[in-house]
Write a sequence for this structure.
């Protein structure tokens, strides 16, 4: 059928975000994410099946992270930061890179519901806060095409739960019975507390849910890059640099592509693309379907009358992850940059001790207390050859750094408030059918 063909196309598109379901619960998944539910692996539907994200959190007690005796440490071990110098048990040639927390950052509604047959419902949880449920609809021909042990329906539940590792959304499979809503309520009453669900009548609700998902699912990132010359020890000097080195320019060309900001139409990361107010050029890259715009200190406007260079710091100081390109022998002090927002510093330095003719980089990472450790971990020694594998590694590390930082108290509380506000705004604007909420979803 046409609908089945469209679903196959959807699943194909979604695979650019996620993995084959065989790696659904594997922390060593061979790409960048988690799979949607594939019913061929589900043996029965007497109970609902729930996917939960891989717990990316790694106990710091299990990480051997100390400066190599061969080198002066790139980052000082200071209060309020955990410094990852490198773990001798890590072999990056054997480790497969993957993005953490993909279940939270996969656009399920866009791919599986928007523009396709489904019904949206609203209820309240045991705390009186809104709960929204989307359940797909299937006709008999589509159900006959379902080769699993029993026909199923996809369900997406959105709640106002606090931002946490287990997520606020639940992605379920339920039996394709004649009263799937009643069955869902029976299954979820103990955990969510809702007693009934009422069908939403607003014709624009699909668009509202799509916009909600886009505001909560992140596939675009902005990272700072701060150039630190040899002998410089404080942020005033770092933010005031106007001249760079050949090593730094080489790294910029390696980590991304230089782009002209005026009339730039892709992700701009808060940079001005009309009047050159934030400089004329920047550095941009993509990894899979993730876009990254860098805020490069020396490409942002310089004001000779401002010793603090607030225009530069306004961007870089508001990036969760900042790359420090360090030259010289001094160790970087993460407390030297005064910012409440930046939680992770990725320090990179050209390794001049290498005896071969290949460009090599040393790396260390400092994370604020409250940010759990996460993959991929640095090896010991943390020295990488400049190649595509290292680029994938460092970009994956940066994206995972920001995702891990969102669970720190300073961010998770804001995420909870934002989500609750967005859901309550939708709840206040919807009209619901007062009766018949156990309707048949099978056409």
């Amino acid at each position: 059928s046409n609908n089945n063909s469209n679903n196959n196309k959807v699943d194909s598109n979604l695979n650019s975000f996620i993995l084959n379901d065989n790696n659904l619960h594997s922390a060593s998944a061979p790409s960048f994410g988690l799979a949607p539910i594939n019913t061929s692996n589900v043996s029965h539907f007497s109970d609902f099946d729930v996917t939960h994200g891989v717990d990316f959190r790694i106990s710091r007690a299990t990480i051997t992270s100390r400066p190599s005796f061969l080198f002066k440490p790139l980052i000082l071990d200071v209060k309020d930061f955990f410094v990852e110098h490198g773990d001798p048990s890590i072999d990056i040639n054997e480790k497969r890179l993957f993005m953490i927390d993909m279940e939270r950052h996969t656009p399920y509604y866009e791919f599986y519901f928007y523009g396709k047959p489904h019904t949206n419902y609203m209820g309240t949880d045991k705390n009186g806060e809104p709960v929204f449920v989307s359940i797909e609809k299937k006709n008999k021909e589509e159900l006959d095409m379902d080769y699993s042990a029993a026909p199923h329906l996809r369900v997406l539940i959105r709640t106002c739960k606090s931002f946490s590792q287990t997520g606020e959304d639940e992605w379920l499979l339920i039996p394709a019975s004649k009263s799937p809503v009643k069955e869902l309520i029976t299954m979820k009453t103990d955990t969510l507390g809702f007693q009934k669900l009422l069908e939403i009548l607003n014709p624009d609700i699909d668009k509202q849910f799509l916009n909600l998902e886009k505001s909560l699912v992140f596939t675009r990132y902005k990272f700072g890059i701060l150039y630190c010359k040899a002998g410089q020890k404080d942020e005033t000097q770092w933010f005031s640099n106007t001249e760079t080195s050949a090593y730094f320019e080489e790294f910029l060309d390696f980590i991304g592509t230089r782009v002209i900001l005026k009339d730039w139409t892709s992700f701009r990361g808060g940079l001005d693309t009309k009047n050159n107010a934030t400089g004329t050029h920047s550095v941009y890259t993509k990894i899979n379907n993730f876009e990254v715009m860098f805020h490069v200190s020396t490409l942002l406007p310089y004001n000779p009358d401002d010793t603090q260079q607030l225009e530069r710091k306004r961007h870089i100081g508001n990036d969760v992850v900042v790359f420090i390109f360090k030259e010289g022998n001094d160790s970087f002090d993460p407390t030297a940059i005064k910012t409440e927002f930046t939680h992770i510093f990725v320090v990179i330095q050209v390794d001049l001790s290498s005896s071969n003719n290949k460009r090599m980089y040393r790396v260390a990472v400092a994370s604020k207390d409250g940010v759990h450790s996460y993959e991929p971990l640095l090896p010991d020694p943390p020295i990488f050859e400049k190649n595509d594998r290292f680029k994938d590694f460092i970009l994956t590390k940066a994206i995972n750094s920001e995702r891990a930082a969102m669970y720190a108290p300073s961010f998770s509380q804001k995420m909870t408030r934002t989500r609750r506000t967005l859901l309550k705004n939708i709840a206040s604007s919807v009209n619901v059918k007062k009766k018949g909420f156990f309707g048949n979803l099978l056409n």
